Amino acid sequence: MIDTKGRSLELFYIDGHPDGMITAELFNWTGHVFVTPRTRLTEALRREEAGYAGVYLLLGEKDGQDFAYIGEAEDLSTRLKQHAAASDKDWWETAVLISASANRLNKAHVKYLEARLIAMAREIGHTPLHNGNAPSLPGLTEADIAKMEAFLGSLMVVLPAIRVDMFIQRSRPAGSSRPVPAFEAAEADTDHAITQTARFVLNKPRIDLTAKAVFQDGEFIVEAGSQARGEWQREDSAQAGSYRPLHDELVRSGILQMAGTHRVFTKDYAFRSPSAAAAVVFGHSVSGPAAWKLESNPEVSFRDWQARQLDAVTEKDAST
After folding, report:
1. Integer Cα distance of 51 and 28 in angstroms
2. What angle in degrees, to the nearest 10, is found between the helix axes of 107-124 and 142-161?
């Protein structure tokens, strides 16, 4: 599990543009992450770290969906030149080069990192891979394995900061979300910190569909066993857009599986918002804050519940 303590991250925009070349480093971490658009590859490969041993990600789109390739090399610049010339890799637009300061990674280290990253990406299922096979883990000492796992833990903190989210694990084992009683605003006058935790339900009686979720630690988690519409609706509507790829991703990864006329969540899944969760359940865009209802009081929507929490915080601040 990734350490959730505060970390200090430094992003450096080499050419002054957020969509240009970027380096990313964590305080007290030997790793170094270098991001370059394909259009800047000539300049990027002149940099010293491009000649280091490391692993790399090629990111882009293929057939209208995100696509990626994960590889390793003792000399990243040589391998990237080969990929730039390969006719079967015209799809990639961005390269992420991952190395260590002073070129500390050796061949066995980068093979281990490559194998682990491929396994993680496939397990999560967020982004299809161009990789044809799954490399086996090389033989490392127990100490080196511990070092590489720590390296990966820090890397998982850095990658989302540079908009690489293919390794974010949003699915959870069934039952991992704890059933905690809903917060009641009337109880907010205690000296204890306000905990934003509550259970919600989403119903569509006309088609006998029910989903349950818990808002916990800032995440909106739809629970395993919840139902979702069998297919995405309103194909020709302007509303068919934003959450359709997410729905398709959950189907592709097996998190949503058919059970009778509906699909069923096979794992708990943490959505970024109540609207994303409601759209996947209903099969079309919908206002999640209005649609999800407090399980203990169906007259209260998520929006109402959150407003009560904010009011309670304001009242507590005013009294101190």
Report:
1. 23
2. 50
Task: Provide the 10 A C-beta neighbour count for residue 268.
Answer: 23
Instruction: Report the C-alpha gap between 99 and 44 in whole angstroms.
Output: 14
Instruction: Give the span between the Cα atoms of 134 and 54, in whole angstroms.
Output: 18
Task: Encode the chain (320 residues) as per-residue pLDDT tens digits.
Answer: 445 578 899 999 999 988 899 999 999 999 999 999 999 999 999 999 999 999 999 999 988 788 999 999 999 999 999 999 988 889 999 999 999 999 999 999 999 999 999 999 998 888 999 998 889 999 999 999 999 999 999 999 999 999 998 998 877 766 555 543 333 333 333 334 444 578 999 999 999 999 999 998 788 999 999 999 999 986 554 444 578 888 988 998 889 999 999 999 999 999 989 999 999 999 998 899 999 999 999 999 999 998 888 887 766 555 65
d(CA 27, CA 12): 14
Rg (CA), the chain: 23
Q: Which amino acid is at 32?
A: H
Contacts of 95 (CB under 8 A, 6+ apart): 35, 36, 38, 41, 44, 56, 57, 58, 59, 80
Residue 262 amino acid letter: H
| CA distances for 85 relative to 63, 95, 163, 183, 311, angstroms | 21, 14, 26, 58, 59
Calpha distance 207→234 (Å, rounded) = 16
